[in-house]
UniProtKB/TrEMBL annotation:
Gene3D superfamilies the UniProt entry points to: SIR2/SIRT2 'Small Domain, TPP-binding domain
Protein name: protein acetyllysine N-acetyltransferase
UniProt keyword list: NAD, Transferase
Species annotation: Pseudoalteromonas amylolytica
InterPro entries linked to this entry: DHS-like_NAD/FAD-binding_dom (IPR029035), NAD-dep_sirtuin_deacylases (IPR050134), Sirtuin (IPR003000), Sirtuin_cat_small_dom_sf (IPR026591), Ssirtuin_cat_dom (IPR026590)
Origin organism lineage: Bacteria, Pseudomonadati, Pseudomonadota, Gammaproteobacteria, Alteromonadales
Length: 237
């Protein structure tokens, strides 16, 4: 059976990375002046890049040295799409997975969405945390007029007001969904577009679905099996 696994933040919780919508999650903690959904936008990056980069660094990049857990290890040889940007699946040895929302260890040139652009290693080792905002603006080549196209850097992350492009391997992800005999969703709240795309394909092709989560979201589909448990328990069944 060709099984596709689609993972969310719940998979990395055991590695000490907060889930998005838990009590200490990324979307429940904003900056001093903005909510997380206001922060995680291209508009914020363009108009207030210092605030955006400081928030991104504190909320995501500070977890860059965390290691994979047993679930990542179990998924290392699986066909995998993850919503997570932590890069832990790569650390666990999965070299063919798709990180459909980006990765914290990569950056690109700031570009118009859809334009071809290469990935570069993120320069986090250059950051001066004692002068965080100014340091990030300097490293990302952002001056007083804000980010400049094809000159400034941008975090490799898909933001709320951006759309999936092949920079995020969306075409290959859809091909993987179409080819699947079963799709297993692990640790996701089904609140982002990639899970809805996968569900639409599953319904259209009558693909078997499994949902793994301690509090699984209910799916309107008659080929769903629910496993109300953490991923670490599911992999030991």
């Amino acid at each position: 059976m060709n099984t596709l696994y689609i993972t969310g933040a719940g998979v990395s919780a055991q590695s000490g990375i907060p889930t998005f919508r838990g009590e200490d999650g990324f979307w429940t903690i904003g900056s001093r002046n903005y909510t997380p959904k206001q922060m995680a936008t291209r508009a914020m990056y363009e108009h207030n890049p210092g605030e955006f980069l400081s928030w991104y660094y504190k909320r995501f990049v500070t977890y860059r040295d965390h290691g994979p857990n047993e679930v990542h290890a179990w998924l290392a040889d699986k066909t995998l799409i993850t919503q997570n940007i932590d890069g832990l699946d790569a650390k666990a040895g999965n070299m063919n997975y798709i990180s459909v929302h980006g990765r914290i260890d990569k950056v690109t040139l700031f570009h118009n969405q859809g334009d071809p652009v290469s990935l570069e290693p993120a320069p986090w080792h250059e950051v001066d945390e004692n002068n965080l905002k100014a340091s990030l603006l300097d490293i990302f080549k952002i001056g007083q007029f804000g980010p400049q196209l094809n000159e400034s850097l941008k975090s490799y992350v898909l933001l709320f007001d951006e759309y999936y492009t092949d920079l995020y391997n969306i075409s290959r992800a859809q091909e993987m969904m179409m080819a699947a005999d079963k799709i297993v969703f692990i640790g996701t709240s089904f609140s982002v577009n990639i899970t809805q795309i996968a569900l639409e394909i599953a319904r259209y092709n009558q693909i078997e679905v499994e949902v793994v989560d301690p509090e699984p979201a209910h799916i309107v589909y008659d080929k769903v099996t629910y496993y109300a448990m953490p991923a670490s328990q599911y992999i030991k069944r």
